[in-house]
């Protein structure tokens, strides 16, 4: 059951990423976004940040895949809320 929920959440992640990619124009990046949604710290919120959050999806402190940077809302677990947070800032730079 838990695995099925994770698959559903990952499917939602992919759908949100696709929506974000197709709805955001690609712009030249001259300044850097500095919010937590820029997980890899490269100054832009993009698919690379979503991939990092997805890789840590379902984790919590002490878990093998735990990445504190992927816990965008700092609630102690990486879940759909963190994915949505990145999606909402997708394209920010
Ligand atoms: Ca980034
Ligand atoms: Ca979280």
N-to-C SSE series?
HHH
Q: What is the fourth-level CATH superfamily?
A: Dockerin domain
Query: What share of residues is helical?
Result: 40-55%
Mean pLDDT over the full residue set: 86
Provide the low-confidence segments as ranges: none
Global outline: globular
CATH architecture: Orthogonal Bundle
How many domain units? 1
C-alpha-based Rg, rounded: 13 Å
Give the termini separation.
Answer: 38 Å
Largest sheet: none
Determine the CATH topology. Answer: Type 1 dockerin domain
Oligomeric form of this entry? single chain
Figure out the total of helices: 3
State the CATH class. Answer: Mainly Alpha
Number of beta-strand segments = 0
Which percent range describes the beta-strand content?
under 5%
Coarse structural class: mainly alpha
Task: Summarize it.
By secondary structure, the protein is mainly α.
Label this structure with key terms.
single chain; mainly alpha; binds calcium ion
What does this structure look like?
- By secondary structure, the chain is mainly α.
- Helices cover 43% and strands 0% of the residues.
- It starts with a helix and ends in a 5-residue tail after the last helix.
- Bound molecules: calcium ion (2 copies).
- One calcium ion binds next to α3.
